[in-house]
Every structure is written in structure tokens, then in C-alpha cells.
């Protein structure tokens, strides 16, 4: 889970840019979590608690997350 979220944050600044090099800093000031992290956390919550997926996704999206992708 931590790896998925870290990868999402690290990749957030490279998404849609077509970065081909592996020589880049992992975390920069512009790095942000995206909807991928939000939904991964919602799925994990469902798996651990037995919560309904639809309810969990609606709860995850009902909280504003400004400046995220």
C-alpha cells in the first residue's frame, strides 16, 4: 500500500509528460497524490472492514482534495 501511494506521488509530476529517463528526483515540491491513491485507500478500507465499495468510493470523493490530479 505504501509503495502504491509513494509511486503515485512520485509519478504525479511525470504523468502526461512522457518522461523516458530514470534519472529524476523522487519527490519534488510539485509532487501530489492523485485520485489513484484515494481509490486505492478506499479499496483497502473495503477489504479490511467489509464496507460496501460504492459507499466507500462516495465517502472518498465527498471530501475535497484541492490541487490533486
Residues in β-strands, percent? under 5%
Number of helices: 3
Structural class: mainly alpha
What value does the Rg take, in angstroms?
A: 14 Å
Helical content stands at 40-55%
Mean pLDDT: 85
Q: Main β-sheet, in a few words?
A: none
Low-confidence stretches: none
Q: What's the number of extended β-strand segments?
A: 0
Shape: elongated
Strand-and-helix sequence, N→C?
Answer: HHH
Distance, first to last CA: 19 Å
Short précis:
The protein has 69 residues and is an all-alpha fold.
Overview of the molecule:
The chain is mainly α and 69 residues long. The chain has three helices and no strands. Helix 2 crosses helix 3 (53-62). It starts with a helix and ends in a 7-residue tail after the last helix. 3% of the residues are buried. The model has no long low-confidence stretch (mean pLDDT 85).
Topology:
Elements: H1 2-11, H2 35-49, H3 53-62
Helix pairs in contact: 2-3
Describe the structure using short key phrases.
51% helix; single chain; elongated; mainly alpha
Amino acid at each position: 500500500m505504501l509503495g502504491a501511494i509513494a509511486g503515485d506521488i512520485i509519478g504525479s509530476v511525470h504523468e502526461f509528460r512522457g518522461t523516458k529517463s530514470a534519472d529524476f528526483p523522487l519527490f519534488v515540491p510539485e509532487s501530489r497524490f492523485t485520485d489513484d491513491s484515494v481509490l486505492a485507500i478506499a479499496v483497502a478500507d473495503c477489504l479490511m472492514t467489509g464496507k460496501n465499495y460504492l459507499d466507500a468510493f462516495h465517502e472518498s470523493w465527498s471530501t475535497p482534495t484541492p490541487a490533486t490530479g
